[in-house]
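hey so i finally got around to running the thing on that chain from the lab meeting. sorry it took forever, my laptop kept dying and i had to restart like 3 times. anyway pasting the input first so we r on the same page abt which one it is
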Amino acid sequence: MKLLVDVGVGRKVETFLTECGFDSKSVRDIDPSMKDSEILKIALSEERVHCSVRTSVPTQKDRQFFVKFQYL
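ok and heres what got predicted. didnt touch it at all, straight out
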């Protein structure tokens, strides 16, 4: 599976995905300030799954982190 890993995803996760055999490309290595629309254009043109992290903070005490895979 080919992935395009967004800037919010940690380097350790990127390394883990690569070690697991995924074909990972990092937005951080291309241009960390790239707009979302450009990121999605790359994902589409290279047939990659966009992997990003969304943070939801229902309370200050309980932080929940979700990895969201957007299948394009």
